[in-house]
């Protein structure tokens, strides 16, 4: 961690934290909520690392006021949460479930009363199970169902949500959920999962129109990005790097910003119906950037099912997820987005950035996490460097407010600024929470001068 003072950020820079519904809400049988693909996935033996489910997790559904109080004390100006599609439409279609939307009404009003902007993500991977039973995102109809859900959510909340995010990390959902089978719904289609990419993007474009029919608030998407580090100096290595960059970083950005799809082996152009690319490229107000680490790539070994091999990057500290801690990658990524997309690139907000460590309370009950402080310090300085380079970055959201149920890892990975004892639901702010609170306060004080 640098010993230099944290540089100032622009007036109005959005300081926030992020969570997702399935990871923190619990109350999976409350208010008429239907099952999601993650409920089904977690009930399948061997799918979740510790055998747990998200039936209770952080019990945010009942403790949201306590969690908003934590946000208030932290001093953030925005809270990014997700709306659980199965709470709003238990089967993914038809009329809304009023009890489900009532919860988000209460949460949004609590945030506004605290002076915190509600930032709502409509889809953070929790597809209603009946839609998956009908084919899920492999089916074009799911895009239309998503737009209908978006319209219904905006009809109830659109006067108060300050920023809408349609999809969270569609690349990760496609690749791990439908391509590799490591996430719900657990399909192993490899490149046959490309229809999931197109239908998610089509759903995004249709949802943009639906949201704007009911709300005047800005609209965004949150993409996961990873700078590509080619390890090797052969033409095959460089070709592998280009293939991975097209898949991870460009597949969900090129069409979004009006360039159509990059050239990818196995992508069926017959997926694209007349008008689809125009729908997908409907202008957005913000590009959400989720960043965790760069990716090492080299030429695929003989017999590999993919056109590249992923290899560990040496020379960086590692998180409990064994991800490299590389703030320079965030600076590199922001410059790549600016240089690649130019005037087509909307303002950027870092919608997720964070790290998992094995945080344990000490004998006095404190949770001291210097590694997370160093991580945040480095990544905030990377954002400031990108601002100095002329990249239009408007905000930074830490993943995450709370330790939570980390998908296929269950409760084994802790990303929170606040430690959660899952047995007692006791919340304990970590030293990183205090550090960030002071950074936010100092930045506001400096901007006010």
TrEMBL record:
Catalytic activity, as annotated: Hydrolysis of terminal, non-reducing beta-D-glucosyl residues with release of beta-D-glucose
GO (cellular component) term, any one: cytosol
Pfam families: Glyco_hydro_1
Keyword Hydrolase: yes
Cross-referenced Gene3D superfamilies: Glycosidases (3.20.20.80)
GO biological process, one term: cellulose catabolic process
Keywords: Carbohydrate metabolism, Cellulose degradation, Glycosidase, Hydrolase, Polysaccharide degradation
Broad enzyme group: hydrolase
Residues reported to bind substrate: 23, 124, 168, 292, 399, 406-407
E.C. numbers: 3.2.1.21
Annotated PANTHER family: GLYCOSYL HYDROLASE (PTHR10353), LP05116P (PTHR10353:SF36)
Membership in a protein family: Belongs to the glycosyl hydrolase 1 family.
Stated name of the protein: Beta-glucosidase
């Amino acid at each position: 961690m640098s010993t230099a003072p944290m540089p100032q950020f622009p007036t109005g820079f959005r300081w926030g934290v992020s969570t997702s519904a399935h990871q923190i809400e619990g109350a999976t049988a409350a208010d008429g909520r239907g099952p999601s693909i993650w409920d089904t996935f977690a009930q399948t033996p061997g799918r979740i690392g510790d055998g747990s489910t998200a039936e209770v997790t952080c019990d945010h559904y009942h403790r949201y006021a306590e969690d908003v109080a934590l946000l208030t004390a932290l001093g953030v100006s925005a809270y990014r949460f997700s709306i659980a599609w199965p709470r709003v439409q238990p089967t993914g279609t038809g009329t809304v479930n009023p009890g489900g939307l009532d919860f988000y009404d209460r949460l949004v009003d609590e945030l506004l009363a605290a002076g915190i902007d509600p930032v709502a993500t409509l889809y953070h991977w929790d597809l209603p199970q009946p839609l998956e039973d009908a084919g899920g995102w492999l089916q074009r109809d799911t895009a239309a169902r998503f737009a209908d859900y978006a319209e219904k959510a905006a009809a109830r909340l659109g006067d108060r949500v300050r920023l809408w995010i349609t999809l969270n990390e569609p690349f990760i959902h496609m690749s791990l959920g439908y391509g590799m089978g490591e996430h719900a719904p657990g399909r192993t289609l490899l490149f046959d999962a490309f229809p999931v990419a197109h239908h998610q993007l089509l759903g995004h474009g249709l949802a943009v129109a639906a949201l704007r029919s009911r709300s005047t608030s800005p609209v965004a998407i949150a993409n996961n990005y990873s700078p590509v580090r080619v390890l090797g100096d052969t033409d095959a290595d460089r070709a592998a790097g280009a293939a991975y960059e097209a898949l991870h970083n460009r597949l969900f950005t090129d069409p979004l910003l009006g360039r159509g799809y990059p050239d990818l082996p196995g992508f069926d152009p017959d997926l694209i119906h007349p008008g689809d690319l125009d729908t997908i490229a409907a202008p957005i107000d913000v590009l959400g950037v989720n960043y965790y680490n760069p990716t090492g790539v080299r030429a695929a070994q003989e017999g590999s099912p993919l056109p590249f091999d992923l290899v560990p990057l040496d020379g960086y500290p590692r998180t409990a997820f064994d991800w490299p801690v590389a703030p320079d990658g965030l600076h590199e990524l922001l410059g790549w987005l600016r240089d690649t997309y130019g005037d087509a690139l909307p303002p950027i907000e870092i919608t997720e950035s964070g790290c998992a460590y094995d945080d344990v309370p000490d004998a006095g009950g404190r949770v001291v996490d210097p590694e997370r402080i160093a991580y945040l310090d480095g990544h905030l300085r990377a954002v400031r460097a990108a601002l100095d380079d002329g990249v239009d970055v408007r905000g930074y959201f830490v993943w995450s407010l709370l330790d939570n149920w980390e998908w296929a890892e269950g409760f084994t990975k802790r990303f929170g600024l606040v430690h959660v004892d899952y047995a007692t639901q006791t919340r304990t702010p970590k030293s990183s929470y205090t550090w960030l609170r002071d950074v936010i306060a100092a930045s506001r004080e400096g901007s006010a001068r």
